[in-house]
Amino acid sequence: MQYAAERRQFALGTGEIGAGKSTMARLLTSRLNPNKYMVLYITDSDLTSCNFYYEVLYQLGHIPRFYRGDAKRQLNRVLLDLYENHRKTPVIIIDEGHLLKREMLEEIRFLTNFKMDSFSPMSLILLGQPELRRILSTQIYEAIVQRLNLRFHLPGMSLEETKGYIAHHLHVAGAANALFTDAAIEIIHDYTQGIPRKINNVCLASLLAGFAERKRLVQTAQISPETEAPIALWRSSGRRGHQG
What we know:
Layout: H1 2-6, E1 10-15, H2 21-31, E2 37-43, H3 49-59, H4 68-84, E3 89-95, H5 102-111, E4 123-128, H6 131-136, H7 142-147, E5 150-154, H8 159-172, H9 182-192, H10 196-213, E6 218-223, E7 230-234
Parallel strand pairs: 1-4, 1-5, 2-3, 3-4
Antiparallel strand pairs: 6-7
């Protein structure tokens, strides 16, 4: 994402639910020099072209024109002025892209047609679930796909990355000792496929179950096939605590 932002490119990023796409966008914002870049983050499951232009203009500190065509031309002028006169590159991030309607996707194509394809004063990053790649693969969106400079997919973490992720969160929370055995982490990883949000949910349920039973170490973890709710089994003197 940083590569696309710094080079004013049109990028497509995908990842499963809870893989960390929004977190990645926040990380990008923190890494870019605010004197050189202005990040505009848009997330709206029912985003229309009018709402898009209005929201971007508001974030840029401008009162949008009433009609969509006027607002569109206004945005083009504002983006160009920001880049040429204020020496700032606008970085527009549109999240939940898999939920965008065809009208909005077509508007994105028009937005990338800055100065007849010869120049772009901004970076445009479209984020969404893997379904977005399938949507854009249809022929009606070929014009959008041809304009993409960069595509990337955010996969789930590996087992070692999952171990490090859990250890880091426990350290930040102030835990002095490990609270999960390697066996428990392996089961957690297999169930969550390394998706951070799922890992958080399973670990939290395990810790809450252990707290209720006054146990100190998650020995293993199971997932109820009926409810898919995590069940934690805690090491103790022959007793097991569980949460269903």
